[in-house]
Amino acid sequence: MSSEIKGLEKVAVRLKWDPSSWDRPPHHLDIIATTYSVDAPHGRPVYVVQFDKRSPDGTINMSRHSQTGQGFGFVEEMTLELDRLAPSFARVVVGVAIHQSAGHKTFGDVSNTGVLVVEGYRELLTDDFAQVAEATAATVAEFTRSASGAWEFHGVLRGFDSDPDRFAKEMGGAPRP
Q1: CA 55 to the chain's CA centroid
Q2: How confident is the model over 67-104, as pLDDT tens digits?
Q3: Which of 16, 47, 141, 177 could disulfide-pair with 94, CB 3.0 to 4.6 Å?
Q4: Nearest in space to 168 (alpha carbons), one of 95, 84, 62, 92
């Protein structure tokens, strides 16, 4: 038996929401992940992964993407292969942002929102964004590397009033008091 502590390895973040009514512009939500180095775990992200990008090393990518919410169940999914991330990474923050191109929308304006974070069949987090109903973006998960090198999960539901681009720059900052 190994004394090595095994942490999280491959995690999926899934997102769902109901489409807007036929006479309204579509709701467009996105899962966004930001990575932080050992040297600056709360500084500027090393890279951002979202609908049109993946990580340079292929460890974080979108396997499903929706611009409308149409479909059954969870319509957007991001996979994070934490066990393959280079040792230079200490932290990964994952959030959800609502595109604001069709006017100001908050989570309270979008029906049947939900996020699910799983490792295999083990549920790490499930939420409906009700606690951040007035926000346009929210962090949902933080993964940190322990001193042993194992990845750990922390649920961090925190609302922001940001568009996706600004949110990607501020979502991993040091927690506010």
Answers
A1: 14
A2: 655 666 677 889 999 999 999 999 999 999 998 887 89
A3: 141
A4: 95
